[in-house]
Amino acid sequence: MNGHRGSGWGHRCGGRVPADPGGGPRPFALPGDPERFRRARPFDLTHLRLDIALDVPARSVSAVAELTFSRRDPDARVLLLDAVAFEVESVTLAAGDAPLPFAYDGEALQVTLGALSSGVVRVRYRARPRRGLYFLAPDADAPTRPEQVWSQCQDEDARYWFPCHDSPDMRMTTELLVTAPSGWTVLSNGTLLERTRTTADAERWHWQQTTAHPSYLVTLVAGTFSELDATRDASLPVRFYVDPGREAEGWRSLGRTADMIEHFSALTGVPYPWPKYDQVAVHDFTFGGMENTSVSTLTERCLLDERAALDATADDLVAHELAHQWFGDLVTCHDWSQAWLNEGFATFFEHLDVERKDGRDAYLYNLKQHADAYFGEDDARYRRPVVCATWGAPIDLFDRHLYEKGGWVLHMLRSELGDPVFWAGVKEYLTRHRGRSVETRDLQRAMEDASGRSLGGFFKQWILQAGHPELELDARFDAEAPRLHVTLRQTQAVDAVTPCFALPVTVSVMHASGEEQRHSLVLDDRSRSFALPCEAAPRWVSVDPDGALLAKVTSSVPAAMLREALAGDPRALVRWRAAASLARHDDELSVAALEKALRDDAFWGVSAEAARALGELRGRMAWEALSRSVDHAHPKVRRAVARALGEFRTDAAAALLVGKLKAGDASWLVESELAKAAGRTRRATAYDALVGALARESWRDVVRIGAVEGLGALRDARAIPLLLALTAPSVGASTRRAAVGALAELGEERREVREALEQLLEERDPHLVPEVLRALTRLRDAASVEPVSRVLRMTDDGRVRRAAREALRSLQSREGSEELRRLRDQVEALRDEVRAVRDQVAAASATRKTERPAASKRRR
Q1: Same-domain check for residues 337 and 455
Q2: Which residues are CB-neighbours of 183 under 8 A, at least 6 positions away?
Q3: How crowded is the C-beta side of 718, counted as CA atoms within 13 Å?
């Protein structure tokens, strides 16, 4: 599943949740969360035949489900089926339609089978699903919304529209016979066997999936779509389905799919395993994408117009869901605690697609961005092992530990073993467990068999334990020895959750001749020192230059070394780390080096990191460097420059950003970033421009959203009525969520804001309500405890429940007091004052140098 991060498609196949605004890492498990164990399986379900008729106006279904069963437990007499809120009409044996005794409590259907060891149970029922199967239609708030029906079964929502054993370890073949309005397209798993007209206004579609798969991968999508055929080989149809009139966006966004299928098949050594690959873009989808077997459902928000395609892509989403066809569909996590085997691999394949398309530097930068996202969750929200068996709902696990850290672990394993061995292990893993459920130890054993190495320590520290190393490098050259004295330290707190890691660490020493010496060291303690042979003082020293470790890396080396590395290292990773480290050196030479990298570096990621470093410096020279680069040729660098300029709370910064915002940009995303940055200057002169930008139409409303976020950051109370209006149901969903977040910036001690937000808790939008809950947490008003408690009592959505429980924890403990916020504001103000004084001193010094050039020359 994809609740996508970087491109913001929503939560990739799961549901990544923003950091808890309460501040600081907390335990992952919430009070009352049980430890989960494997579910009992006294019967196997081996086939589902579901004959289902859609009543679109009533948002309901009438269906007959036939489930083929076989007994596993010789003492079992009752077949338990998950089935929520059905109107059960009858339960019979398919053979002869003989009635079977059953009991039903609205959640579980218990069918008494007696001595029957195998057979087919037939369940006739009606349902109006509140989850699992969704009916869309235009209404007063969304008059252009198309009529569509689509399913989303992960994690355990299949039970809302067909009876099943709703756990990932049960696999069955499936047939869906779907009666839908005439003229609609109906998509499902496997192969279309037949399409027949049943009445003047209805048709029946018969789909068959002949390879067993779990219930959460069963899919049904119905609506009016335009079909785009991207088939290269007649044996494997590849098709896209989009809204009529959006065909160009479909090709632009999904057009690399066939290339990816060939690439992933070659990498894994296992050909694409299903009879077709379809992708369908639907409206109001609950996640970014869902990897249903042989047909992925995607949010229509991934479709790019020409301006969006300048610096956005749907490739990561496409690659993620496609990779799941092997990792998640062909082999499936045994239970949700092992879900990183699905999501970690799918995320890793996003990186692999970037590597093939854009090269190694882009691959490593993609990994860096994922690491930053994981570090953010680990720092601000909680720390947990990747494999974790204590949780409230399965969706709790679909976070940045599962996706981003999971993908990173596979990258580290690849780096450790090398490509030939790693890919041999992947092939062995897929081949050995094809069509089966897997646990982490299955991957470990396949990799051990391929490599001949013991990998228990690797998987223990990276998967079964929590956290990551924080590495510090000290390097000192001893000319008399001659030796380079290197000290490596792990500075992270070591406790019952986070270990002291055993790490292979590469240290790179670059000499004046251009020769590089690489030293492979082992750091298996908190600190170790090494004396490395070195004939002359090195130009620069770098740790982990290949980006093989998920670690926070800092280098205590002179600024001169960092400038040399930024200017001369052939690896973009070393250059962007040098740029980040130079944010601690506010001298003329370092600022000049950053500006040169910003302007001239061959890789846009290094330029972006140089811009970020200049923004962190905030001084006069940094401001001048950034202002000269505001029109950089690369749109992603222009975004980084705009973001950095937002760090300067000055009239000049506001004027520059507002001017650029009014002038517009070829990139929607640059315009959005300009609006956000203008608001962060906290200058009232930005207000009118931001209000004006609210009316600007753009792809996915990104410019309007940027203006909303800018108004929140501006902290100008005049924006409150505008922002409240933007929370109305008639406003686009993403803009509504942005308005809620902005109100949290402005609404403290404003009762009307709190009450308006509390009113939004009555809605059922699983994306909006968690955003409201986080906003109320930031407002820190204990009066919200009861409305939040009511949400917890009323909802069964796992994302909403988790957000409500976290909000209650923060509101009831009153962490993040007003005093703490006041202190933070004071610290920020003091930082600005110190930088202003430093700029004045620098300006005075420059004046003296101009007046006394001879003395200045002698001092140098």
Answers
A1: yes
A2: 203, 224
A3: 10
